[in-house]
Known about the structure:
Layout: E1 4-8, E2 15-19, E3 33-39, E4 45-50, E5 56-59, E6 62-66, E7 71-75, H1 77-89, H2 97-110, E8 117-118, H3 119-131, E9 141-145, H4 153-163, E10 167-168, H5 179-187, E11 198-204, E12 207-209, E13 218-219, E14 228-229, H6 232-244, H7 261-276, H8 289-311, E15 317-329, E16 341-353, E17 356-359, H9 370-377, E18 383-386, E19 389-392, H10 403-423, H11 446-449, H12 454-459, H13 465-481
Parallel strand pairs: 1-3, 9-10, 9-11, 11-15, 12-15
Antiparallel strand pairs: 2-7, 3-4, 5-6, 6-7, 8-16, 13-14, 15-16, 16-17, 18-19
Helix pairs in contact: 3-4, 5-8, 6-7, 7-8
Protein name: Limiting CO2-inducible protein B/C beta carbonyic anhydrase domain-containing protein
Pfam families: LCIB_C_CA
Organism: Chlorella vulgaris (Green alga)
Amino acid sequence: MAPLALCAAASHAQCTRVSAGISRRSVQPARLFSSRVAHKAGRRAVLVAAEAQGSVIEAGDKTIIVESDGTIIIGSPEAVARAQANSDNEEAAPESAETDYLAGRANAVQKHFEGSLGADDFMQRVEMALFAFGFTGDNSIAMVNLCRDEVTLTLKHRIEDVFGSAFSTNGLGGALTCGVTGMGAGFSHSPLCSSNKERYVFFSFPHISINASGEVGPMSRPGRPGQSCACGALIKATNEIKSEGLTCNCKIPGVHDAVDPEMSILKQRIARRLRHEGHNDDSVKDLTLVDVTKVAERTISDDLEFLISKTVNTDKADYAVITGVQIHNWAKDFEDASPNMEFVAPTSAYVVVNGVKTHIDLTAMPPMTPRQMRLVAGPADVCNQGGQTMLREEEAPYAFDSKDARRSQKARLQRYLSLMKEEGLDASGSNSTPVWQSKITTTTPARCATADNSVIIDSSFNTDPELSKIREQLEEKYRVAQ
């Protein structure tokens, strides 16, 4: 075996632990190998040899131990003894450590959303199930309804990997506000299959964060200190309904806040749904974010069903519906060692082919193996079984950022600080603003100088006595109906 060069800069108080990079099979008893130990202070080298696994070699004032697994410990006798004691106390990591960890992460999510699947696992099951009924990326258009939050792109990207560019009907909190015109626009973009039929695949999901520590709501995002959250719109709706009560949030259907239309529509629909399900001003005070997210899913899914009934002609089209909740199981701190995971808790999956509705049980389908998942979804440091689902580490959907990018940036900035000190550089007096900035400024356009936006135009109707009277009559009628 060729000599193995080991460079050790070990002081008398410390020892160096070196992984020899040799498999256990390679380090055989009675086999000789050489090690060159360089003392940093004196730059002297000593050639040593070990004749068996677990050998102890004295080299000057240093002790060298070659452990049975090929690990080499170099240091003073006292430091080596301490290192060996610490090594003996370390718990040996079993081969199941990764799958056990992933199973724990999955259990933390499934505590709140039973039946949740890893997002990649979920999509491969959806693709296989829909393929059995004739839906593919070549002959179908995906109609995707998610929250506007950029983190929902993790799921949209997976959908588009299967079905190509999707028609988006996104709204805050996943509120479906596109109406029949929006649905029809998406249908008109669908490819025609050989039978001259169109095929639509509807995906609809509100979302929630359950981080690696099991906390519901908080979410760490790159470039932002502290904790963000998901879903912000549903958290706001939850807090306001709990503090304001249910009755005052059950507005007249079709009426919304002109400066906050999507949020007001989302909150009203959730409030009316809660009242429909038997809640009152007192009972809503006990609701959690998980509770409201599930209510939002039922509300949005029912809204989707209603719009489908108003827009889809089953003589001319087949369609599939996949609904549930998207769950972000990210690290508690974006830059820590915990892998970011994505889950989906499916609630409904069915196809309508030639007017016949068939429900699908996605959980009845087996997951891929880790090797298959890497082939389909791409390489990842973490890709393994987690309980009853397959989990794969998620790269955050930010073109400008990732865990590695953040770590690399920190190291780069620290290096620049060191270089400025070493090289005596002075950045004072420099101006980071481009010199051409002043050349592109102009006066305020006439259109922007006048207050004629839609909100101001609409507000003029609030002062109309006749309209105000009609509004009061409608509100009174709606209160009586309650």
